[in-house]
Each structure stands twice: as C-alpha cells, then as structure tokens.
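RECORD TYPE: inverse folding
INPUT: structure tokens
STRUCTURE:
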C-alpha cells in the first residue's frame, strides 16, 4: 500500500476484502489508501455491493456504515440515515453489469424488504440519458447529506458502445470543490479476454473523483449538458466552414440558390449585409474544397481519407 495517493494508482493484486466474484467489485486497496490519505475514522457507502468498503475499513481499524439495494436500502427513494463525514461511492457503469435478478436474487430482496429492487436498480435503466439523470440525483442526495467539510470519493468509468464513448466522469454533476481526479488502472477485468477488431481502443482505466463540501448551504456546482449545435450559428466558424458544411449536408451538385436558402436564416447571414456576395466569394476562394461543374452549380470536393 502506498503512503500517499498519487494522480495514477494501480492495484495488480486486489487485496483482501469484498468478493471478486461480484462483478464490478473494486480493489479494497483503493479504499484503504483513501482512508489512510484522509486519516478517516469512519466511511459510509450507500451502494456497497459485496461489502468491499466494510472490509477495507476493518482492515484499517476504522468504522463503516454500508448499505445496498440488495440489503434493504434504496438510495433513490430512502432517506440517508446519517450525516456522513466521508462517502465512498461506486455506482454501476450503466448496464455493463446488471445486478438485480442477475448478481443477486431480486425476489429474495422483495420478500425480505418489501420492495422490488429492479425498479430502483441503476444498472437496469435502459437509456443513457435516464441513467445519467438518476446518477446525478444520487450524487446530489449524498452530497447534501454530507457534513460541512465532508468528502466524497466516487469511482467512475467510461463505456464504449457502437463507436461512441459514454463518460460518467464528464456527465456527472459535480457539487462542491473538485479536489482531484485520480486515474485508476484496471486489472483482471472480465473484458481482458476479449479480442477487439478494427480501430477499437480498449478502456483500461477508471476515475476516482474527489469532492469536498466546504460550506453547509451555498456551494459551487459544475453541470454538464448536451445540446445540438449548428455550424451556421457558431461564433468560431468561418464562411468556408459554413459553406462546406452546407454542401456536405446537401450532397452532390447543388444550385447556388440552395446554398443561400440554407444560410439566410442563421446568425452569420443576419449580421452581414452582403452575405450572398460573401458566399460566392468563399466558393471561388477555395478551389481545393469547392468545385463548379457548371455555372450556378457547386459541389464539395471529397477529401481522400486514410482513416474513418
């Protein structure tokens, strides 16, 4: 175990604690290092999985309070029972591992605790957008419960599906003071035996986000949201960019009037009196990008690509 945390951590040997057969389970050494670094006397975990946080706390001789959906606590709907000083949170990585009804018996949970865990299981939320909404709700709920000066350590991952990256770190709401982001190298993963084809880049790391609550009422908050942008309205786009994008979108050979129609209702045209002249000037200024097969007709020159 290292004396202090660094910006990159690696635990080839997972250590003692938790259940490595419980998929998605993290190394107890990470939690032990967090306990040592912050000199913790107690740690709370509201998605405790197989109990790694409890075992790490026992290894370090401190107290822990752990809860999970499979053992009677629903973070989405139940009140957090204490005002914690330190929270370790390792949420599901969307639907990469489905927990209720798969890793544990959901019917047994329902019979014992009186609720169906599949309803509140973040790993069963079908869409990424709804998953992020639930993830952010859980983040704020835990942060709100912290005492002043309290901290959260959140273990997060990236997901790659059909060529698109989905990043929990980028989209997670970040209240309070962001103290550090630690890169945690992954070892002995289920996907280690998978052979990838093409240009797929395997994900070999996770993130540990460290957040501090510096004030009881008012705190900074960092939000990430996605919206559609339009090249024709972006302040940094040039006339070359706009005309090229319009021609790419229209495909093939198009009349000059069609280009005008695609530009006239957007910011760049509305803020420039002689925008039509600017469009024509742009088309003529870049023969390596635009071609004119005949008068009044233009097309985009397809640039040869070596990669896709």
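DESIGNED SEQUENCE:
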């Amino acid at each position: 175990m290292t004396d202090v945390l660094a910006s990159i951590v690696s635990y080839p040997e997972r250590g003692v604690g938790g259940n490595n057969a419980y998929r998605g389970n993290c190394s107890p050494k990470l939690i032990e290092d967090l306990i040592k670094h912050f000199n913790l006397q107690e740690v709370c975990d509201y998605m405790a999985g197989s109990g790694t946080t409890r075992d790490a706390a026992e290894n370090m001789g401190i107290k822990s309070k752990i809860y999970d959906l499979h053992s009677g606590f629903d973070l989405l709907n139940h009140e957090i029972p204490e005002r914690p000083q330190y929270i370790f949170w390792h949420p599901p990585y969307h639907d990469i591992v489905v927990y209720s009804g798969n890793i544990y018996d959901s019917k047994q949970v329902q019979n014992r605790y009186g609720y169906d865990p599949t309803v509140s299981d973040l790993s069963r939320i079908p869409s990424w957008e709804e998953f992020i909404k639930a993830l952010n709700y859980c983040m704020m709920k835990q942060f709100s419960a912290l005492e002043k000066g309290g901290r959260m350590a959140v273990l997060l991952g990236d997901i790659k599906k059909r060529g698109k990256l989905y990043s929990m770190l980028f989209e997670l709401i970040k209240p309070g003071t962001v103290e550090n982001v630690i890169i945690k190298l992954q070892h002995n993963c289920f996907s280690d035996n998978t052979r990838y084809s093409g240009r797929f880049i395997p994900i070999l790391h996770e993130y540990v986000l460290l957040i501090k609550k510096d004030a009881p009422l008012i705190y900074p908050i960092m939000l990430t949201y996605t919206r559609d942008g339009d090249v024709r309205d972006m302040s940094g786009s040039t006339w070359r960019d706009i005309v090229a994008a319009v021609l790419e979108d229209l495909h093939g050979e198009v009349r000059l009037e069609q280009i005008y129609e695609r530009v006239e209702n957007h910011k760049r045209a509305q803020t420039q009196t002689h925008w039509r002249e600017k469009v024509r000037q742009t088309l003529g200024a870049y023969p390596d990008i635009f071609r004119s097969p005949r008068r009044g007709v233009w097309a985009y020159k397809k640039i040869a690509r070596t990669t896709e």
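NOTES: The chain has nine helices and 14 strands.
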